[in-house]
Design a protein that fits this description.
This protein is an alpha/beta fold. It has one domain: TIM Barrel (Alpha-Beta Barrel), CATH 3.20.20. The protein has helices at residues 19-29, 37-44, 51-57, 66-81, 119-130, 150-160, 176-184, 199-205, 214-218, 220-226, 243-260, 289-302, 316-325, 361-370, and strands at residues 84-94, 100-101, 136-141, 166-170, 189-191, 206-208, 231-234, 265-269, 307-310, 329-331, 374-376. An eight-stranded parallel beta barrel has the order 1-3-4-5-7-8-9-10, surrounded by six helices. Strands 2-6 form a two-stranded antiparallel sheet. The longest helix has 18 residues, at 243-260. It is globular, with a radius of gyration of 20 Å. InterPro entries: Aldolase_TIM, BATS_dom, rSAM, rSAM_sf, ThiH, ThiH/NoCL/HydG-like.
Length: 384
């Protein structure tokens, strides 16, 4: 018998917060009704929009006036971020995972090649990436507390700090004390994808492992900020459940965290389901590119100051379009396998999913310039 995904495990830290209850209630109350074109245009005339306006921008009829919505989103992007497009790349250091999730290539029951990089291999990867000119790196692991302990990830961050000015982490949810350890070793930004805000679907697709515990995952951003992190990232895996409700919930979750922690830098990603090595038929279902752009624009209009990232899950053509309208951050030179950046590394692990945009850092850089935008590798320096 499977456990209730809403019940904490004994070892998991609990914090005093009512944000989860507020988001889940709002999601339950959201009926995904359609609205008139006049309602959408009235929303676009406002300086700041409400939760009801967010629902209006996510309705089906909004696709009819998507150009108008994109124009508003572009105005806000250029007003708040200028022509700057920030660059980063992910570095996967381990693909071991303790969880069974039906959509993920790293799931513990999948027959893939597992690799756990040691310090020497991690540093070789970091040096290879640094040669491309990048200054921001995102450390990733499969969600295994057994193989990728907090001290292992902290050591990787300490190594990364020798070469990169900005370090983020996209790893399993941790207690506050563990996030503090990562922060003390150089990590300033933590991203946790909630996958879906539907409790029913969350329970169905997360079969076993700590990831099955929804509230612990939901509160990750708060624990990271309580540990001293400068910024936190959010995202639902679009296509896993009703995309409108998940996009609405993601934006509300981020906005409530921003309201409670006004000093925090907020970022949002828009990952869609992608085929994996063990499931080539998996797809984002109803979330086609027009609907994905609609979501990105709605995020920008609802959260004009939030950073929006567009990853290599999407094609080069779509990413080029997204950064001209609403996204202000882009990954480049991406590999989602293990040990693949350094050519001398012969111990390479399987990839988490198929990417769509395999351009090198220079190719993305050149394309951004051609679009009249400014590639940025580093835009600030932390002072101790």
């Amino acid at each position: 018998m499977r456990s209730d995904c809403m019940e904490f495990l004994p070892q998991m830290e609990r914090i005093d917060s009512n944000i989860m209850d507020e988001v889940l209630k709002a999601r339950d109350d959201y009926k995904c009704e359609n609205f008139e074109i006049s309602d959408i245009k009235a929303t676009l005339s406002k300086d700041r929009i409400s939760l009801i306006d967010l629902k209006i921008l996510l309705c089906d009829n909004a696709l009819v006036v998507l150009e108008d919505i994109a124009r508003k989103a572009r105005e806000l992007t250029r007003a708040n971020f200028g022509n700057s497009i920030n660059f980063f790349t992910p570095l996967y250091i381990s693909n071991y995972c303790d969880n069974a999730c039906v959509y993920c290539g790293f799931g513990c029951s999948n027959k893939i090649k597992r690799v756990h990089l040691n310090s020497t291999s991690i540093e070789k990867e970091l040096i290879a990436i640094k040669k491309t000119g990048l200054n921001e790196i995102l450390l990733l692991t499969g969600e295994s507390q057994t193989y990728s302990t907090p001290s292992y990830i902290a050591n990787a961050a300490k190594l990364a700090k020798k070469y990169f000015s900005t370090i983020g982490a996209e790893v399993y949810p941790m207690d506050t004390k563990d996030y503090k350890l990562l922060h003390e070793n150089g990590v300033d930004f933590v991203t946790i994808f909630n996958e879906t805000y539907s409790i029913k679907k969350y329970q169905k697709v997360h079969i076993s492992g700590n990831k099955r515990v929804f509230p612990y995952r939901f509160n990750s951003q708060e624990r990271a900020l309580l540990a001293g992190m400068k910024g936190v990232g959010f995202g639902a895996l679009l296509g896993l459940d009703d995309y409108k409700k998940d996009a609405f919930s993601t934006a509300l979750h981020a906005s409530l965290i921003q309201k409670k922690y006004p000093h925090a830098q907020i970022s949002i990603s828009v990952p869609r389901l992608r085929p994996t090595l063990t499931n080539s038929k998996i797809n984002p279902n109803s979330v086609d590119e027009r609907r994905l752009l609609q979501i990105i624009c709605a995020y920008r209009i609802f959260l004009p100051f939030a950073s929006i990232t567009i990853s290599t899950r999407e094609s080069a053509k779509f990413r080029n379009a997204a950064i001209q309208i609403a996204a202000n951050k882009i990954s480049a030179g991406v590999s989602v396998g293990i040990g693949t950046h350094d050519e001398t590394n012969h111990d390479k692990g399987s990839e988490q999913f198929e990417i769509s945009d395999s351009r090198s850092v220079k190719e993305v850089y050149d394309d951004v310039l051609k679009l009249g935008l400014q590639p940025v590798f580093k835009d600030y320096e932390f002072l101790s």
